[in-house]
Design a protein that fits this description.
The chain has 8 helices and 11 strands. It is of the alpha/beta class. A 9-stranded mixed beta sheet has the order 3-5-6-2-8-1-9-10-11, with helices on both faces. A two-stranded antiparallel ribbon has the order 4-7. Helix 1 crosses helix 2. The longest helix is centred in the first third of the chain and has 15 residues.
Length: about 240
């Protein structure tokens, strides 16, 4: 277990200026250029710290639809996240951030609403909600695709202080680019022992070209800080 409480507090302070429109909550996505950089850990730790400090609930949305792991990780640490509540709807207005194609149908041929494939469970006494996409319910030959429509995120903003999105790495999916225009900020996660920043820089460029705003950090297995190269181009 990696405890990044102090580092996440620093990140919370650095992101204080990132807010949603009006009284709505903010939406921040976390992504790395390559798999294995520690994105899920950073996103989860930030969500935990934010939930402790926020006045309204914090949502941790697992956008890795092919390998959802955040809820399992939270359940594995009851001493830090508390007792996890029963499954509940992950959408306040029946919208959802993905579409399964071809659509799933029941045995009677009735289309199954995409939103029914994702549940949310509470942690930290209801301060934190964690989503999980039920990939095991998706039949072979079908695939869930993240949408650029911002309806779901707008709905969550009205109920959350902060929505934290854990995106799959850029070398696996284009999720971060798709969501870039509808989130308030993107946090790039980079392994501290990675001296080659070209892939992170290329991902930043793609996200900005898609209409997003990048704010960077580096993850060093037990340390998070803003590296010089990110300070130069995070802007």
């Amino acid at each position: 277990m990696v405890d990044l409480t102090a580092e996440m507090a620093a990140l919370w302070a650095a992101l204080a200026r990132v807010r949603g429109a009006g009284a709505d909550g903010r939406v921040i996505q976390f992504v790395a250029a390559r798999q294995g950089e520690g994105t899920s850990t950073v996103a989860r730790e930030f969500a935990r710290m934010a939930a402790v400090r926020a006045r309204r609930p914090v949502w941790l949305v697992d956008a890795d639809l092919e390998n959802p792991s955040q809820l399992d990780a939270v359940c594995a640490e009851p001493e830090r996240f508390g007792r996890v509540g029963p499954p509940a709807s992950a959408t306040p207005d029946q919208s959802i951030f993905y579409a399964v194609r071809p659509p799933i149908r029941s045995r009677n041929g009735v289309p199954v609403a995409d939103r029914r494939l994702t549940v949310a469970r509470s942690a930290l006494g209801g301060r934190l909600w964690v989503s999980r996409f039920s990939i095991e319910l998706v039949p072979p030959g079908r695939r869930a695709k993240v949408l650029s429509d911002g309806a779901y995120w707008s709905a969550l903003r009205r109920h959350a202080d902060t929505v934290v999105i854990d995106c799959p790495a850029g070398d696996r999916a284009e999720t971060a680019e798709v969501l870039a225009p509808v989130v308030d900020a993107t946090v790039l996660v980079v392994a501290a022992d990675d001296t080659d920043a070209r892939e992170a820089s290329a991902l930043k460029t793609r996200i900005e070209e898609a209409g997003g705003r990048c704010i960077g950090l580096v993850f060093n297995r037990a340390q998070v800080q803003t590296p010089k190269f990110l300070r130069r181009f995070a802007g």
